[in-house]
Structure formats: C-alpha cells, structure tokens
Amino acid sequence: MDEPDTLYTAIRDEAATVLVGNESVLEELTVSLLTGGHVLLEGVPGVAKTTIAEVFARTLGLDFQRIQMTPDLMPADVTGTTIYRETTGEFETKRGPIFSNLVVVDEINRATPKTQSALLEAMQEGQVTIEGETYPLPEPFMVVATMNPIDMDGTFALPEAQFDRFQLKIDVDIPERELESALLERFDETPDLRPDLIRQVVSADDIYAARATVRDVHVDPSIRDYILDIVQSTRDSTDTAHGASPRAGIHLLSSSKARAAVEGRDYVIPDDPKALAEPVLAHRIVLSTDAELSDLDSRSVVGDAVSAVTPPTHDVAPSAEAVSDGGEHPNADGDE
C-alpha cells in the first residue's frame, strides 16, 4: 500500500465504522502523518476530538498512548525520569508515555507551561532528554493534541513556540443536522460502539512507502511562488502584527504535496495550498490590536490574505519531457 490515496481510503473506510462524517479531519490527519507533522484538534466538548484521534491511531496499528493533561502533571510524567534501584545500586531510566508512535495529548492547555514545554523537544527534534541523556523517539512519531476553546478555567495559554510545533490546527465543529441524525441512529442501533473496535488497516511499512511517494510529488515553480505570495500576504495584512513565518511556508508546501498525493495526483495544484492555508497558517499569525478589538479571528484573516493573492492559471502538471528522463520530475526533490 505505497499509494497515499489508497492508504487514506483504507483509514477513512475503517474509521467510518465508528465515526460519522469527519472525512476532512481524517484527510488532514493523514496529510500530517505523511509529512511527519503534528496536529492540534480544537473544538467544544462532545464533538469527538479524542475519539477521532484514537480511531485514527488504531487504524494505523502503531504504538499508541494517551496523556490526559492536568495542572498537577509534571514534565517527568510525560517524558520519563530516572529511578534508583536498591537491588542493583544503579539508576534506571523509566521512559514516559511520549515514547510511542502516536501520542494523543488530551486538553493540552490544561497543563502548566513547564509541562507543555516538555513536548517541544519531542515534537521538533524527535528526541527526549532525561537527566542530561538524550533518547530518540520511535519512528514514525506523531502528536495529536486536543484543546477546548471555551472553558478557560484552569487552563494555560499555549505560547507561540508551542503552537508553531503543530503543522496543522484543525477545528472540529458541531456536525450538521443530517450527520447528527445519522450519528444518533448509529449509536441507537449499536450503543457499545467504541474506538477499540477499530481494526488495523495500515502498517508502518505502508506509511514509509507513502511518505516516499509524497516526497516525489511535483511542485511547479509557479506553485512555490503562489505559496510565497500567500505567506507574504499574511505579513502585509493590516490585521496582523506578525504574519506567517518561513517555517509556516515550508509546512504549507509539504502538506500541499501530501494533499495532492492523498487525492491521487503526483503534482500540486493551486487548490492544495489554498485549501490548507487556514489550518497551516492561522494558528501561527499574531493579530493586530485593531483586529482583536474588532473580534476578527485568525482563520478569517488568513482567508482574506489568500483571497488577495491571484493563483497561477497555467497548467502546473509535469510535462511529458519533464518525466522522460528516468521518470523523475525536475522538482521532485522533497522540498520540505
């Protein structure tokens, strides 16, 4: 299963045995998985954020851990610590739950900044330092965190550095009435439907193969310019104090390649960065004071910035000449 579209279809179909709707969320989770990114799911209580993350993890069959964040959770509870063994007279490293392929960090903003910072090294560098010793994390490694946007009691705001570690921030909304009706019907017929009933449909080798396919997706120079124009538009906006960073542009490029592959294409089209601009960029910009006083949200500001940019109109698919030499595209160099 080295084709990303086949991999995503298998994940979506298996997840549908428990979930109703949420296809776009599953697609964006797959996009992040195939580019080595991390995802933040935000939504009000009861919209199945944690269930989506657990269902996604179980379809992959990878080592999975859930960390319930609370104000009294210590960094060592996440990363691990060393303990002294009297029987041997030596210190032994006890690894924390972060040493898993997929880690669901539930209600990340309920942890103190000190505990939140324990995730920074893991998410950025794929390693953890315990008592001065550095340990690599397993591959693949992915963090899916959840956050409740309305209950602020007992929470700690995520700093920009923490937000920036997430490739995508996905809003999980209340479903439309038709989907909610289907949800009620399903749980009326099967009250004991649970994420642990999900079967593994993807292996680690499938993920590695699909990642290699994503790296070879063709990106026309005009598409790279389009991504740069979108990023620059967020910086030029009067509604932002700080626009998107170069790292945000890199993530928009890599996720666009993954979206193209998931949708069965070996080349990126303007609709790819256009569709992903908000989940990739919105949590990385800082609104201006006037924008905050006007109750503007970052997603609408990014949407306006994208609308201000004219997408390329010519053919961005690789030509026959471009793939005739060894079957490789001239830009298929994994610009990530």
From TrEMBL:
One of its GO terms (molecular function) is ATP binding. SUPFAM superfamilies: P-loop containing nucleoside triphosphate hydrolases. The keyword Iron does not apply. Residues 308-336 are annotated as: Disordered. SMART domains: AAA (SM00382). Residues 326-336 have a biased composition (Basic and acidic residues). Pfam families: AAA_3 (PF07726), AAA_lid_2 (PF17863). Signal peptide: none annotated. Residues 35-176 form the AAA+ ATPase domain. The keyword ATP-binding applies. Keywords: ATP-binding, Nucleotide-binding. PANTHER family: MAGNESIUM-CHELATASE SUBUNIT CHLD, MOXR FAMILY PROTEIN. This is MoxR-like ATPase. It comes from Halopelagius inordinatus.
